[in-house]
Structure formats: structure tokens, C-alpha cells
Predict the structure.
Amino acid sequence: EIVLTQSPGTLSLSPGERATLSCRASQSVTSSYLAWYQQKAGQAPRLLIYEVSRRATGIPDRFSGSGSGTDFTLTISRLEPEDFAVYYCHHYGSSPRTFGQGTKVEIK
Amino acid sequence: EVQLVESGGGLFKPGGSLRLSCAASGFNFSAYTMNWVRQTPGKGLQWVSFITSSGNYIDSAGSVRGRFTISRDNAKNSLYLQMNNLRAEDTAVYYCAKGGGSNSWLIDYWGQGTPVTVSS
């Protein structure tokens, strides 16, 4: 089983600042099948990024993904008020699929 | 617009059974893989089960294998999760989640979830 470890647990930033979220896998992620989801309180997760760096439909270009092998990053270039939420990384290239424990991006 | 509406959650006793349902609309249901994913405050998001578009391949997490069974009825645009021999640790919000293609393991849309509580 691939264990995904996200850091930091909480990121306190102001609107307009850059957010950098990390996801580290316990072994190499198959075929770059790594995704990022955003979840707001009381809502279902929403797909942001798939295959490491491809933005999902309707996702603004301030969201970008990068990385390879075992180290991945989600970057939000300039935080908008609606971006304060919890973010999860997820590998889906092998079974069992797993999720990271999440990074909360909160308003400073 | 993709819509996934789960139902069937509630309060159940350990050792009991239930069946979750998911009504899908807004896309060609029979052309996409589907999943169940659960979420708890303590363990976060946990993938539960996966089924291909035709239903000919199924995969499940080890913690539920032999107790939970995923199935689908493409004629009714519906996904199901039969949950048997319930345990307290199955308490969670259960999400129905759409795959990215006929054999894709990517999850691209989620329902709003249905809560399941297992307690005596």
C-alpha cells in the first residue's frame, strides 16, 4: 500500500499569497497517477489536478501541480478567499488507492 | 451537470447489514467506472470499492473485502454498496464517486455523501 504523507498539516496565509502544499509517497506512484482534491466544510471533495499536473475542467490556472516519483506539489499562485479549504492528494495507479491526510489552508 | 445522489445511510447495529444506493444523472452512466469512498474525522478519506463500466471487474479495500459488495445497474443508472457484518469502524460518510472513463481509476466527481453510523 502506498502511504501518502502531506505537509504541512496547516498552512496559515493571507489572500494574495502563494501556497505550496507537499505530498510525499512511500513508493513511486505508478504512471504519474496522482491527483489533488479540494474540500470545503460540509461539501464533497472537488477534483483540481490529475496525472500530477493536468487541471480538471473549470479549475483556474492559479492552481498547478508538479512532481514525479514520490514527491509532489500543489501550488496556488495567489490565494483567493474561496481557496481556503482542505486539500488532499490521492494516488490511483495501483490498488489500494489511498489519500493523504490533508493540508488545511486557513486565513492568517 | 453530473449529479450523484446517495441514499440508504442511517444508524445500524454491529453485525447488521445495509445497502447504499447512488442515483446518477447528467452523464452516460454505463460508460464510466464508479467508486465508493468513505470519510471519517479520524482516518480521513478512504477508498472502499471500484467497479468498471460494465461491472465485469471489481476491486475493494482489504478492510471491507468479503463484507462489502459493490454493484451497478446500468439500466437504472444506479450504483450500490451492500454492506454486511458491520463494524463500529465502518462508521463514516459514504460517497458515491464517478470515474474518469470506462476503465479509469481517476475519480472526477463526488456525491454529497450519506452518513452511516454503526453502534449498539
User: Anything to note?
Assistant: The two ends of chain A are 35 Å apart (CA to CA). The mean pLDDT of chain A is 96. Chain A touches chain B through 21 residues (CB under 8 Å).
